[in-house]
User: Fold this.
Amino acid sequence: MKFVAVLLSRGERTMARSREYTLRRIHSLLGVIPVGVFLIQHLVVNNFATRGEEAFNAASEFMVNLPFRYALEIFVIFLPLLFHAVYGIYIAFTAKNNVSNFGFVRNWLFLVQRITGIVTLIFIVWHVWETRIAAARGAEVNFNMMENILSQPFFFWFYIVGVISTIFHFANGLWSFGVSWGITVTPRSQLISTYVTIGVFLALSYVGVSAILAFV
Assistant:
C-alpha cells in the first residue's frame, strides 16, 4: 500500500508539473499573440498624435469603426489579457527569485519582469477606465481627452512610467517566449534574442513616449 501511495504521489506531482508547464506556455503565447500584437497596434495608432490632432482623431475613429469591434475586443483583447494578467500575478507571487544569490543579468531581468507585470496591470486597468469605460458612458476618446489627461503632471509621469513598463514587459517577455517554445535553445541564440528584444524595447519606447509628448 505504501508503494502504491508513493507511486500515486509521484504521478500527481508529475501531472501538476505538466499542467503548470502547459499553463506557462499558454501564458507566454498570449502575451505575444494577441496581446503583444495589440500593444504594437495601439502604440502605432497613438503615435499618429505626432502628426497632429486631426491625424490622431482620424486614426482613433478608424479603430472605433472596425467591423465586429466588440467581438474583437472581447475575444482577441480582453479575455486573453485577463488570463495573462491573472496567471501572471500567480507567477509573480510564487516564483522564486535568485537575485540575492545569483546576481546575473538574466536573474535581475526575471525579477524586473515580475515587477513591471504588476505596474503594467495597474496602468492598463487605469487606462481602460479613463478611456474605454469613459467612452461607454458617452465620453469621446480623442486628442483633446488625452491632452487634458496628460496636462496634469502626475498623470503625465504615470503614463510615461506605465508605457515604458508595459513595453519592457512585452519585450523581455519575447525572450522568455523564445525559450519556452523551444525557438532559442542554445546560448548563442539566446544572446542574439537578448539584443533583438533590447532593440524592440528601444524602438517601441520611442514610439510610445513620442506619442505622449505629442499630446503635451
